[in-house]
Design a protein that fits this description.
Blueprint (H helix, E strand, L loop, with lengths): L3 E5 L3 H13 L3 E5 L2 H10 L4 E5 L7 H9 L6 E5 L4 H9 L4 E4 L4 H16 L4 H6 L3 E4 L4 E4 L2 E2 L4 H12 L7 H8 L8 H18 L6 E4 L3 E4 L4
Helix pairs in contact: 1-5, 7-9, 8-9
Length: about 230
């Protein structure tokens, strides 16, 4: 089955190049040129990934990403002329899966799309999830229960937690976690990992203040508690 990729881009020449590369690479691209049309397209059919231009005529891509995240867990790749580190960090911390700066090669973007789709499909198996109680992962809904209570996680927090769940007790460096979360670890900094860990810890502590689920290893990284 060809994955449906929603391309949200208002420059016709850029959009045509992306659509051609994606279709040639085995995807089913759907092109829209505005934020309103993007939301309508997401509500009309299942979409496996969104390529989202930050500068749209009717919306800011960052704001549109927030709107999409309210009701959809679909992976998002930002496409933008902005290359400043602050913009990249903001985009990734909003829950984007990758960040491509113009000018770019359509074939490179297509390769990044394939990589994000593979990563989205590579979720922990039910057997693995069952082995890591008190966590219960629902792969279809991208949700996690902690001691039976639902966690309100951003997409990045969900992926960070499942990365730790795949290796309970292992000390994962910030660089390793960056590789787990994003295709281009150089697009953001290791400080972003610390920020996401802090937010994830706060949500876990809110449900079980008596337990420390994530352990810090100074100078090395983080690990998930192995024994409960």
């Amino acid at each position: 089955m060809r994955p449906t990729v929603l391309v949200v881009e208002d420059e016709p020449a850029v959009a045509d190049a992306i659509v051609y590369a994606l279709r040639t690479d085995g995807c089913d691209p759907v092109h829209v040129a505005s934020g309103a049309a993007a939301l309508a397209a997401l509500g009309a059919r299942p979409v496996q990934l969104v390529v989202l231009d930050v500068g749209l005529p009717d919306a800011n891509g960052f704001d549109l990403c927030r709107e999409i995240r309210r009701s959809h867990e679909v992976p998002i790749i930002f496409l933008t002329a902005r290359s400043e580190e602050t913009d990249r960090v903001v985009g990734l911390e909003l829950g984007a899966d990758d960040y491509v700066v113009k000018p770019f090669s359509p074939r490179e973007l297509s390769a990044r799309v394939r990589a994000v789709l593979r990563r989205a499909a590579a979720q922990p198996t039910p057997a693995k999830a069952a082995a890591h109680r008190p966590f219960d992962i629902d792969e279809q809904r991208h949700s996690v229960r902690y001691f039976g209570q639902a966690l309100d996680l951003t997409r990045t927090e969900y992926r960070l937690l499942t990365a730790l769940l795949r290796h309970p007790g292992w000390v994962l460096s910030r660089a390793r976690l960056l590789e787990e979360l994003w295709d281009d670890p150089g697009a953001t900094t290791e400080r972003a990992i610390d920020s996401h860990i802090k937010a994830l810890r706060a949500k876990l502590r809110a449900l079980r203040p008596d337990l420390e689920a994530i352990e810090t290893h100074r100078g090395e990284g983080y690990s998930l508690r192995e024994r409960w």
